[in-house]
């Protein structure tokens, strides 16, 4: 059974019909998303084509330094992107950067140490991309919720500080809810995987002609790794970010 | 003359362009002090400075003859307890809120005594805070503060969200507290009549400045 599949540019272009359908629906129902759909389509084409060439180069060179450099770039861009979703959190970039770096390093380190994947570009690049991408989404959602929580719960947090609680104690309920928000989407999709939707890796492998059992096993490995990375990213991001709402004298900052 | 609890000297605080407190110098003695004035006078902000929920931009504040910033803020807040204007209890029961405050202060958690002091029946201990009326929540906030056995109670408009009956009940509770406990109270109120009923020392504020302070009989004659 073949494990590779050739996709022509013409086939890609044909699927633009579905993009046109999405734009038409937006136009018809006045959702005002046509421009965004256009930008998203163009950006995904340019970005994926570029990364395709970069990955080809990295696979051919097969050196860990290049893999590491690519992962660092992913972490930095991931943190910058997630920051735009966490506007209410002061100084959100550094907590996000540390969160993505920790999630990526821990998850990839563990799967290599446990012998699940080899420490080669062929495994580290795609798995690293998935891990950092999911960590980015989770930490962005978590910090977005944290910003809302700290705003909405200001009275309760200050009342708790007034009792002599530390900032950590006063913020704990908000931090807990923020972490939960960051993790819940992946936990729920993991619960329903195989029943309601087929995850991307499995679909890709099946389309490429892989044995379904292999596709399932690889998908399970990735889902479990993603659960770990999302939890680490959410934990690190919320744990570092909530401190930015407080002064060293355990006071809520005026924002 | 009673002993001075808090001494403020040239205290100023700005929020953006607005000077919320403008060179405030005033002494607050032991006993019951009412800070009165219209909305926006800076009363609540001044109260928040007294247990370091905020720090002034300029000037000095002392508590019992020591600079306020020389106290550990957490220990200070357990000794000088602030009950905010709007109830803000933690999720759970009245008892779990009281136990939380008691644990922070290292005090025994028995809720009955402080519920009684706050004018609530001991049965309220098991009640979920989300099921309480605003007046009951305000009393639960008071009970939660009292379990820490503070030396000073800072009350920010404690009856502003209540109807007349609930207001009278809280005021009676506060008067009873003052009789039962050796506790000083600093009360913020926009109502001079409430200051008359509860205070024996008055600080009058307007537009971020102290315009008058002294014994009740002199300031609100």
What is the fold's blueprint, element by element?
The complex is a heterodimer of chains A (about 260) and B (about 220).
Chain A: H1 9-14, H2 16-28, H3 34-61, H4 64-83, H5 93-113, H6 121-152, H7 154-161, H8 167-192, H9 200-207, H10 212-241
Helix pairs in contact in A: 2-3, 4-5, 4-6, 5-6, 5-10, 6-8, 6-10, 7-8, 8-10, 9-10
Chain B: E1 4-15, E2 18-29, E3 32-36, H1 43-50, E4 58-63, E5 66-67, H2 73-79, E6 80-83, H3 94-105, H4 111-117, H5 134-146, E7 152-156, H6 164-180, E8 184-189, H7 192-198, E9 201-206, E10 209-215, H8 216-219
Parallel strand pairs in B: 3-8, 3-9, 6-7, 7-8
Antiparallel strand pairs in B: 1-2, 1-4, 4-5, 9-10
Helix pairs in contact in B: 3-5, 4-5
In short, what is this structure?
Chain A is mostly helical and 255 residues long. Chain A contains 10 helices and no strands.
Fold and architecture overview:
The complex is a heterodimer of chains A (255) and B (221). Chain A folds into two domains: 1-61, no CATH class; 64-245, Up-down Bundle (Multidrug efflux transporter AcrB transmembrane fold). The longest helix of chain A is centred in the middle third of the chain and has 32 residues, at 121-152. Helix content of chain A is 75%, strand content 0%. Chain A has 255 residues and is mainly alpha-helical. Chain A has helices spanning 9-14, 16-28, 34-61, 64-83, 93-113, 121-152, 154-161, 167-192, 200-207, 212-241. The mean pLDDT of chain A is 92. Chain A is built from ten helices and no strands. The radius of gyration of chain A is 21 Å and the shape is globular. In chain B, 45% of the residues are buried. The mean pLDDT of chain B is 91. Chain B has a six-stranded mixed beta sheet, sandwiched between helices. Chain B has a four-stranded antiparallel beta sheet with strand order 2-1-4-5, covered by helices on one side. Helices cover 34% and strands 29% of the residues of chain B. Chain B is an alpha/beta fold. Chain B has helices at residues 43-50, 73-79, 94-105, 111-117, 134-146, 164-180, 192-198, 216-219; strands at 4-15, 18-29, 32-36, 58-63, 66-67, 80-83, 152-156, 184-189, 201-206, 209-215. The A-B interface holds A 155-156, 158-166, 169, 173, 247, 249-252, 254 and B 15, 51-55, 69, 73-78, 81-84, 86, 88-91, 100-101, 104-105, 141, 144-145, 148.
